[in-house]
Amino acid sequence: MIKMTETGVHNHLMKMEQNGEAIHEEEKKEYEEFTIRESPLTTLLDTINIGLSVVVAGFGDIRRGFALWVYEFFVSMSLYPLLIVYSWIGTISRKNPALRPTVVTLGVAGVLALEVALVAVPVFELTRKRLEIASATTVTCEMFRFMMKLVAIASACGPRCLNGNKPLPTFKQFIYFMFAPTLLYRDQYPRTKKIRWGVVVFHLLEIAAIIFYNTFVWERFLKPHWFDYGKSKTVEVGAIVRGIYACVLPGLFSWTCGFYCTMHAWLNACAEVLKFGDRQFYKDWWTKSRFSEYYRNWNRVVHLWFRDHIYLPLVPYVGRPLATFTIFFVSALAHEIIISLCLGFFYPVLLVEFGVLGVLMIPVSATAGRRFPNFFNVILWSSFFIGNGMLWSFYPMEFFARRNCPPSENDSFFIPKSWTCPEVILKPNWTFQNPLRIF
After folding, report:
1. Most exposed among 98, 101, 157, 318, judged by the fewest C-beta atoms under 10 Å?
2. 314: Cβ contacts below 8 Å, ≥ 6 apart
3. Domain residues for 297?
4. How far does Cα 322 stand from its chain's mean position?
5. pLDDT tens-digit series, residues 40-82
6. Whole-prediction pTM value?
7. Which helix H or strand E contains 236, and what residues bound it?
8. Active site residue: 12, 24, 309, 335, which one?
9. 203 flagged as catalytic
Protein backbone atom coordinates (compact mmCIF):
# COMPACT_ATOMS: atom_id res chain seq x y z
CA MET A 1 0.00 0.00 0.00
CA ILE A 2 1.44 3.34 -1.03
CA LYS A 3 1.27 6.05 1.61
CA MET A 4 0.22 9.34 -0.01
CA THR A 5 1.61 12.65 1.24
CA GLU A 6 -0.54 15.76 1.55
CA THR A 7 0.77 16.99 -1.83
CA GLY A 8 0.01 13.61 -3.33
CA VAL A 9 -3.57 13.69 -2.06
CA HIS A 10 -4.07 17.17 -3.49
CA ASN A 11 -2.69 16.11 -6.91
CA HIS A 12 -4.88 13.01 -6.87
CA LEU A 13 -7.99 15.08 -6.29
CA MET A 14 -7.04 17.51 -9.04
CA LYS A 15 -6.51 14.63 -11.47
CA MET A 16 -9.95 13.19 -10.63
CA GLU A 17 -11.60 16.56 -11.32
CA GLN A 18 -9.76 16.90 -14.65
CA ASN A 19 -11.03 13.48 -15.68
CA GLY A 20 -14.59 14.67 -15.05
CA GLU A 21 -15.17 12.55 -11.97
CA ALA A 22 -17.65 14.13 -9.55
CA ILE A 23 -16.19 14.63 -6.08
CA HIS A 24 -18.58 15.39 -3.24
CA GLU A 25 -17.59 17.63 -0.37
CA GLU A 26 -17.81 14.71 2.05
CA GLU A 27 -15.39 12.72 -0.09
CA LYS A 28 -12.93 15.60 -0.05
CA LYS A 29 -13.07 15.65 3.77
CA GLU A 30 -12.33 11.94 3.87
CA TYR A 31 -9.06 12.59 2.04
CA GLU A 32 -8.03 15.24 4.57
CA GLU A 33 -5.72 13.69 7.13
CA PHE A 34 -5.80 16.39 9.83
CA THR A 35 -8.03 19.35 10.56
CA ILE A 36 -9.75 20.93 13.59
CA ARG A 37 -12.86 18.86 14.27
CA GLU A 38 -14.71 17.04 17.08
CA SER A 39 -15.49 13.38 17.52
CA PRO A 40 -18.98 12.38 16.34
CA LEU A 41 -20.19 11.46 19.84
CA THR A 42 -18.97 14.78 21.20
CA THR A 43 -21.15 16.57 18.67
CA LEU A 44 -24.14 14.38 19.47
CA LEU A 45 -23.77 14.78 23.26
CA ASP A 46 -23.70 18.58 22.88
CA THR A 47 -27.34 18.42 21.80
CA ILE A 48 -28.42 16.67 25.01
CA ASN A 49 -29.56 19.19 27.63
CA ILE A 50 -29.26 17.79 31.18
CA GLY A 51 -30.15 21.09 32.85
CA LEU A 52 -26.59 22.11 33.71
CA SER A 53 -27.01 25.47 31.98
CA VAL A 54 -30.09 26.20 34.12
CA VAL A 55 -28.20 25.35 37.33
CA VAL A 56 -25.25 27.54 36.35
CA ALA A 57 -27.56 30.42 35.40
CA GLY A 58 -29.56 30.01 38.62
CA PHE A 59 -26.44 30.46 40.74
CA GLY A 60 -25.22 33.42 38.70
CA ASP A 61 -23.12 36.07 40.47
CA ILE A 62 -22.46 33.58 43.24
CA ARG A 63 -19.64 35.70 44.69
CA ARG A 64 -22.05 38.55 45.41
CA GLY A 65 -24.48 36.09 46.96
CA PHE A 66 -21.73 34.60 49.13
CA ALA A 67 -20.67 38.08 50.25
CA LEU A 68 -24.23 38.82 51.39
CA TRP A 69 -24.34 35.50 53.28
CA VAL A 70 -21.05 36.34 55.02
CA TYR A 71 -22.53 39.67 56.07
CA GLU A 72 -25.62 37.93 57.49
CA PHE A 73 -23.45 35.43 59.34
CA PHE A 74 -21.25 38.02 61.03
CA VAL A 75 -24.24 40.16 62.02
CA SER A 76 -25.73 37.07 63.67
CA MET A 77 -22.45 36.25 65.38
CA SER A 78 -22.36 39.73 66.92
CA LEU A 79 -25.23 38.72 69.21
CA TYR A 80 -22.87 36.68 71.39
CA PRO A 81 -20.65 39.57 72.57
CA LEU A 82 -23.78 41.68 73.00
CA LEU A 83 -25.19 39.01 75.31
CA ILE A 84 -22.03 39.16 77.40
CA VAL A 85 -22.34 42.95 77.68
CA TYR A 86 -26.02 42.61 78.51
CA SER A 87 -25.22 40.13 81.29
CA TRP A 88 -22.88 42.72 82.85
CA ILE A 89 -25.66 45.30 82.69
CA GLY A 90 -28.00 42.70 84.20
CA THR A 91 -25.66 42.33 87.17
CA ILE A 92 -25.97 46.07 87.80
CA SER A 93 -29.77 45.92 87.50
CA ARG A 94 -29.96 43.20 90.16
CA LYS A 95 -28.31 45.58 92.59
CA ASN A 96 -30.60 48.44 91.48
CA PRO A 97 -34.08 47.01 90.80
CA ALA A 98 -35.35 50.41 89.67
CA LEU A 99 -33.17 50.09 86.56
CA ARG A 100 -34.71 46.76 85.50
CA PRO A 101 -37.43 48.16 83.14
CA THR A 102 -34.83 50.33 81.43
CA VAL A 103 -32.46 47.39 81.04
CA VAL A 104 -35.23 45.20 79.56
CA THR A 105 -36.15 47.93 77.08
CA LEU A 106 -32.49 48.30 76.18
CA GLY A 107 -32.18 44.55 75.53
CA VAL A 108 -35.26 44.42 73.32
CA ALA A 109 -34.07 47.47 71.38
CA GLY A 110 -30.67 45.85 70.88
CA VAL A 111 -32.17 42.68 69.41
CA LEU A 112 -34.47 44.71 67.14
CA ALA A 113 -31.53 46.80 65.94
CA LEU A 114 -29.61 43.63 65.16
CA GLU A 115 -32.59 42.24 63.22
CA VAL A 116 -32.90 45.45 61.21
CA ALA A 117 -29.19 45.37 60.38
CA LEU A 118 -29.52 41.74 59.33
CA VAL A 119 -32.41 42.50 56.96
CA ALA A 120 -31.62 45.97 55.64
CA VAL A 121 -28.47 45.29 53.62
CA PRO A 122 -29.61 42.10 51.81
CA VAL A 123 -33.01 43.61 50.98
CA PHE A 124 -31.40 46.82 49.70
CA GLU A 125 -28.88 44.90 47.62
CA LEU A 126 -31.46 42.55 46.11
CA THR A 127 -33.83 45.39 45.22
CA ARG A 128 -30.99 47.49 43.81
CA LYS A 129 -29.68 44.69 41.60
CA ARG A 130 -31.46 41.35 41.44
CA LEU A 131 -29.47 38.16 41.96
CA GLU A 132 -30.23 35.05 39.95
CA ILE A 133 -32.99 32.93 41.45
CA ALA A 134 -30.95 30.21 43.18
CA SER A 135 -28.43 32.66 44.68
CA ALA A 136 -31.21 35.04 45.78
CA THR A 137 -33.19 32.18 47.33
CA THR A 138 -30.16 31.12 49.36
CA VAL A 139 -29.53 34.66 50.61
CA THR A 140 -33.15 35.37 51.56
CA CYS A 141 -33.81 32.00 53.19
CA GLU A 142 -30.62 32.32 55.23
CA MET A 143 -31.65 35.84 56.20
CA PHE A 144 -34.91 34.56 57.69
CA ARG A 145 -33.17 31.58 59.29
CA PHE A 146 -30.70 33.83 61.08
CA MET A 147 -33.52 36.16 62.13
CA MET A 148 -35.41 33.30 63.75
CA LYS A 149 -32.25 31.96 65.37
CA LEU A 150 -31.54 35.37 66.93
CA VAL A 151 -35.04 35.56 68.39
CA ALA A 152 -34.73 32.05 69.80
CA ILE A 153 -31.38 32.55 71.52
CA ALA A 154 -32.27 36.05 72.75
CA SER A 155 -35.49 34.72 74.29
CA ALA A 156 -33.62 31.89 75.97
CA CYS A 157 -30.62 33.88 77.23
CA GLY A 158 -32.17 37.30 77.96
CA PRO A 159 -33.74 36.21 81.28
CA ARG A 160 -30.44 34.58 82.28
CA CYS A 161 -28.67 37.90 81.86
CA LEU A 162 -31.21 39.63 84.11
CA ASN A 163 -31.68 36.97 86.78
CA GLY A 164 -28.22 35.45 86.85
CA ASN A 165 -29.70 32.06 87.79
CA LYS A 166 -28.09 30.24 84.87
CA PRO A 167 -24.84 30.85 83.00
CA LEU A 168 -24.76 32.03 79.41
CA PRO A 169 -24.03 29.44 76.73
CA THR A 170 -20.44 28.99 75.69
CA PHE A 171 -19.39 30.22 72.28
CA LYS A 172 -19.17 26.59 71.16
CA GLN A 173 -22.82 26.08 72.13
CA PHE A 174 -23.75 29.34 70.40
CA ILE A 175 -22.03 28.50 67.11
CA TYR A 176 -23.42 24.95 67.18
CA PHE A 177 -26.95 26.30 67.47
CA MET A 178 -26.44 28.69 64.56
CA PHE A 179 -25.85 25.71 62.24
CA ALA A 180 -27.97 23.03 63.93
CA PRO A 181 -31.11 21.95 62.01
CA THR A 182 -33.46 23.46 64.58
CA LEU A 183 -34.80 26.92 65.43
CA LEU A 184 -35.32 26.26 69.15
CA TYR A 185 -32.33 26.99 71.39
CA ARG A 186 -31.20 24.46 73.98
CA ASP A 187 -27.89 24.22 75.80
CA GLN A 188 -27.73 20.53 74.90
CA TYR A 189 -29.33 18.40 72.20
CA PRO A 190 -29.49 14.62 71.80
CA ARG A 191 -26.31 13.65 69.94
CA THR A 192 -25.31 10.57 67.98
CA LYS A 193 -21.96 8.89 68.65
CA LYS A 194 -20.38 9.19 65.21
CA ILE A 195 -20.79 10.70 61.76
CA ARG A 196 -21.87 8.27 59.06
CA TRP A 197 -20.17 9.85 56.08
CA GLY A 198 -21.80 7.39 53.71
CA VAL A 199 -25.20 8.75 54.76
CA VAL A 200 -23.98 12.31 54.22
CA VAL A 201 -22.70 11.55 50.72
CA PHE A 202 -25.93 9.71 49.85
CA HIS A 203 -28.08 12.69 50.86
CA LEU A 204 -25.84 15.11 48.96
CA LEU A 205 -26.18 12.95 45.85
CA GLU A 206 -29.96 13.01 46.34
CA ILE A 207 -29.88 16.81 46.49
CA ALA A 208 -27.85 17.01 43.28
CA ALA A 209 -30.18 14.57 41.52
CA ILE A 210 -33.28 16.50 42.60
CA ILE A 211 -31.81 19.79 41.43
CA PHE A 212 -31.15 18.35 37.98
CA TYR A 213 -34.55 16.68 37.87
CA ASN A 214 -36.27 19.97 38.72
CA THR A 215 -34.35 21.75 35.97
CA PHE A 216 -35.51 19.04 33.56
CA VAL A 217 -39.14 19.50 34.67
CA TRP A 218 -38.79 23.26 34.31
CA GLU A 219 -37.26 23.20 30.84
CA ARG A 220 -39.37 20.37 29.43
CA PHE A 221 -42.82 20.85 30.99
CA LEU A 222 -43.14 24.32 32.54
CA LYS A 223 -41.03 26.84 30.65
CA PRO A 224 -42.41 26.07 27.14
CA HIS A 225 -45.90 27.24 28.15
CA TRP A 226 -44.82 30.69 29.34
CA PHE A 227 -41.47 31.52 27.74
CA ASP A 228 -43.07 33.54 24.93
CA TYR A 229 -45.73 35.14 27.13
CA GLY A 230 -45.80 38.85 26.32
CA LYS A 231 -44.23 38.63 22.86
CA SER A 232 -47.67 38.77 21.22
CA LYS A 233 -50.02 41.67 21.79
CA THR A 234 -52.92 39.40 22.71
CA VAL A 235 -53.38 36.03 24.34
CA GLU A 236 -56.53 33.91 24.50
CA VAL A 237 -58.05 32.87 27.80
CA GLY A 238 -58.13 29.31 26.54
CA ALA A 239 -54.35 29.30 26.07
CA ILE A 240 -53.85 30.44 29.67
CA VAL A 241 -56.27 27.83 31.02
CA ARG A 242 -54.58 25.08 29.01
CA GLY A 243 -51.20 26.21 30.31
CA ILE A 244 -52.41 26.12 33.92
CA TYR A 245 -53.77 22.59 33.51
CA ALA A 246 -50.55 21.49 31.80
CA CYS A 247 -48.51 22.79 34.78
CA VAL A 248 -50.55 20.96 37.44
CA LEU A 249 -48.74 17.62 37.37
CA PRO A 250 -45.16 18.85 36.76
CA GLY A 251 -45.74 21.58 39.35
CA LEU A 252 -46.73 18.95 41.91
CA PHE A 253 -43.67 16.86 41.04
CA SER A 254 -41.42 19.88 41.51
CA TRP A 255 -43.10 20.77 44.81
CA THR A 256 -42.80 17.28 46.31
CA CYS A 257 -39.20 17.03 45.14
CA GLY A 258 -38.52 20.39 46.79
CA PHE A 259 -39.97 19.09 50.05
CA TYR A 260 -37.83 15.95 49.93
CA CYS A 261 -34.71 17.93 49.01
CA THR A 262 -34.98 20.49 51.82
CA MET A 263 -36.90 18.82 54.65
CA HIS A 264 -35.39 15.35 54.28
CA ALA A 265 -32.13 15.19 52.34
CA TRP A 266 -30.61 18.55 53.29
CA LEU A 267 -31.65 18.59 56.96
CA ASN A 268 -30.63 14.96 57.46
CA ALA A 269 -27.24 15.62 55.87
CA CYS A 270 -26.70 18.62 58.19
CA ALA A 271 -27.89 16.64 61.20
CA GLU A 272 -25.52 13.78 60.40
CA VAL A 273 -22.51 16.08 60.09
CA LEU A 274 -23.38 17.81 63.40
CA LYS A 275 -24.39 14.52 65.12
CA PHE A 276 -27.80 16.06 65.78
CA GLY A 277 -29.90 13.18 67.03
CA ASP A 278 -33.52 14.31 66.59
CA ARG A 279 -34.33 13.86 62.89
CA GLN A 280 -38.10 14.38 63.08
CA PHE A 281 -38.13 17.46 60.88
CA TYR A 282 -41.58 16.53 59.56
CA LYS A 283 -44.30 13.94 60.14
CA ASP A 284 -46.64 12.05 57.83
CA TRP A 285 -48.44 15.15 56.52
CA TRP A 286 -49.46 13.29 53.35
CA THR A 287 -51.96 11.14 55.30
CA LYS A 288 -53.75 14.01 57.06
CA SER A 289 -57.35 15.02 56.52
CA ARG A 290 -57.39 18.25 58.53
CA PHE A 291 -55.49 21.26 57.21
CA SER A 292 -54.37 22.23 60.71
CA GLU A 293 -52.60 18.86 61.05
CA TYR A 294 -50.98 19.28 57.66
CA TYR A 295 -49.57 22.67 58.59
CA ARG A 296 -48.21 21.35 61.89
CA ASN A 297 -46.54 18.31 60.32
CA TRP A 298 -45.29 19.67 56.99
CA ASN A 299 -42.38 21.61 58.52
CA ARG A 300 -41.94 20.97 62.24
CA VAL A 301 -38.75 23.02 62.38
CA VAL A 302 -40.60 26.25 61.57
CA HIS A 303 -43.86 25.18 63.24
CA LEU A 304 -42.19 24.72 66.64
CA TRP A 305 -40.57 28.15 66.38
CA PHE A 306 -43.92 29.78 65.59
CA ARG A 307 -45.51 27.89 68.46
CA ASP A 308 -42.98 29.00 71.06
CA HIS A 309 -42.24 32.55 69.91
CA ILE A 310 -45.52 33.82 68.42
CA TYR A 311 -48.49 31.56 69.16
CA LEU A 312 -48.02 30.83 72.89
CA PRO A 313 -47.02 34.42 73.80
CA LEU A 314 -50.05 35.82 71.91
CA VAL A 315 -52.77 33.39 73.06
CA PRO A 316 -53.27 34.89 76.56
CA TYR A 317 -53.79 38.36 75.05
CA VAL A 318 -55.66 37.82 71.76
CA GLY A 319 -57.03 34.27 71.95
CA ARG A 320 -56.34 31.20 69.85
CA PRO A 321 -58.09 32.21 66.57
CA LEU A 322 -56.28 35.52 66.21
CA ALA A 323 -52.97 33.98 67.29
CA THR A 324 -53.41 31.27 64.65
CA PHE A 325 -54.24 33.85 61.97
CA THR A 326 -51.14 35.86 62.97
CA ILE A 327 -48.94 32.82 62.45
CA PHE A 328 -50.37 32.15 59.00
CA PHE A 329 -50.13 35.78 57.97
CA VAL A 330 -46.51 36.15 59.12
CA SER A 331 -45.50 32.85 57.47
CA ALA A 332 -47.26 33.67 54.19
CA LEU A 333 -45.77 37.16 54.16
CA ALA A 334 -42.26 35.77 54.75
CA HIS A 335 -42.66 33.33 51.86
CA GLU A 336 -43.93 36.13 49.64
CA ILE A 337 -40.98 38.37 50.54
CA ILE A 338 -38.58 35.58 49.58
CA ILE A 339 -40.32 35.08 46.23
CA SER A 340 -40.49 38.83 45.55
CA LEU A 341 -36.80 39.38 46.25
CA CYS A 342 -35.88 36.40 44.07
CA LEU A 343 -38.09 37.24 41.08
CA GLY A 344 -37.91 41.03 41.26
CA PHE A 345 -41.64 41.75 41.64
CA PHE A 346 -44.44 41.46 44.21
CA TYR A 347 -47.24 39.18 43.07
CA PRO A 348 -49.02 37.72 46.13
CA VAL A 349 -50.37 34.49 44.63
CA LEU A 350 -48.87 32.34 47.39
CA LEU A 351 -50.04 34.84 50.01
CA VAL A 352 -53.65 34.40 48.83
CA GLU A 353 -53.42 30.61 48.53
CA PHE A 354 -51.65 30.05 51.83
CA GLY A 355 -52.62 33.01 54.00
CA VAL A 356 -56.28 33.27 52.93
CA LEU A 357 -57.62 30.07 51.37
CA GLY A 358 -55.43 27.85 53.54
CA VAL A 359 -56.63 29.59 56.71
CA LEU A 360 -60.28 29.25 55.66
CA MET A 361 -59.85 25.51 55.21
CA ILE A 362 -58.77 25.04 58.84
CA PRO A 363 -62.24 25.46 60.41
CA VAL A 364 -63.89 23.76 57.43
CA SER A 365 -61.83 20.59 57.89
CA ALA A 366 -61.64 20.71 61.71
CA THR A 367 -64.73 18.59 62.36
CA ALA A 368 -65.51 17.23 58.91
CA GLY A 369 -61.92 15.98 58.55
CA ARG A 370 -62.44 13.72 61.56
CA ARG A 371 -65.74 12.35 60.29
CA PHE A 372 -64.67 11.86 56.67
CA PRO A 373 -60.86 11.46 56.76
CA ASN A 374 -60.48 9.79 53.36
CA PHE A 375 -62.61 12.34 51.57
CA PHE A 376 -60.80 15.31 53.08
CA ASN A 377 -57.42 13.75 52.41
CA VAL A 378 -58.46 13.75 48.74
CA ILE A 379 -59.45 17.42 49.09
CA LEU A 380 -56.06 18.15 50.66
CA TRP A 381 -54.21 16.56 47.76
CA SER A 382 -56.54 18.21 45.25
CA SER A 383 -55.55 21.58 46.72
CA PHE A 384 -51.90 20.64 46.16
CA PHE A 385 -52.62 19.87 42.50
CA ILE A 386 -54.62 23.03 41.82
CA GLY A 387 -52.46 25.31 43.96
CA ASN A 388 -49.18 24.23 42.37
CA GLY A 389 -50.64 24.48 38.89
CA MET A 390 -51.57 28.10 39.58
CA LEU A 391 -48.25 28.91 41.27
CA TRP A 392 -46.22 27.46 38.42
CA SER A 393 -48.34 29.42 35.94
CA PHE A 394 -48.95 32.88 37.41
CA TYR A 395 -45.38 33.51 38.59
CA PRO A 396 -43.79 32.48 35.23
CA MET A 397 -46.45 34.50 33.38
CA GLU A 398 -45.48 37.62 35.32
CA PHE A 399 -41.75 36.88 35.06
CA PHE A 400 -41.76 36.50 31.28
CA ALA A 401 -44.26 39.34 30.77
CA ARG A 402 -41.77 41.69 32.45
CA ARG A 403 -39.02 40.30 30.25
CA ASN A 404 -40.85 40.18 26.91
CA CYS A 405 -43.23 43.15 27.06
CA PRO A 406 -41.91 46.60 26.11
CA PRO A 407 -41.07 48.90 29.04
CA SER A 408 -43.76 51.32 30.18
CA GLU A 409 -43.86 54.32 32.47
CA ASN A 410 -46.55 52.47 34.47
CA ASP A 411 -44.22 49.58 35.32
CA SER A 412 -44.08 49.00 39.07
CA PHE A 413 -42.63 46.50 41.51
CA PHE A 414 -46.09 46.02 43.05
CA ILE A 415 -48.42 46.16 40.01
CA PRO A 416 -48.53 42.95 37.91
CA LYS A 417 -47.55 43.57 34.31
CA SER A 418 -49.12 40.34 33.06
CA TRP A 419 -52.58 41.83 33.68
CA THR A 420 -52.14 44.41 30.93
CA CYS A 421 -49.46 42.93 28.66
CA PRO A 422 -50.46 41.03 26.66
CA GLU A 423 -54.15 41.79 26.39
CA VAL A 424 -56.20 38.79 27.50
CA ILE A 425 -59.10 38.15 25.15
CA LEU A 426 -61.79 35.56 24.53
CA LYS A 427 -61.60 33.59 21.31
CA PRO A 428 -63.94 35.03 18.65
CA ASN A 429 -67.29 33.23 18.55
CA TRP A 430 -66.32 31.43 21.74
CA THR A 431 -69.02 29.14 23.17
CA PHE A 432 -69.16 26.72 26.07
CA GLN A 433 -69.44 23.06 25.15
CA ASN A 434 -70.89 20.68 27.72
CA PRO A 435 -68.23 17.97 28.27
CA LEU A 436 -70.91 15.55 29.55
CA ARG A 437 -73.06 15.79 26.46
CA ILE A 438 -73.66 12.43 24.77
CA PHE A 439 -73.69 12.50 20.98
Report:
1. 98
2. 322, 323, 326
3. 197-406+415-425
4. 28
5. 777 766 666 656 677 777 777 889 999 999 999 999 999 999 9
6. 0.82
7. strand 234-236
8. 335
9. no
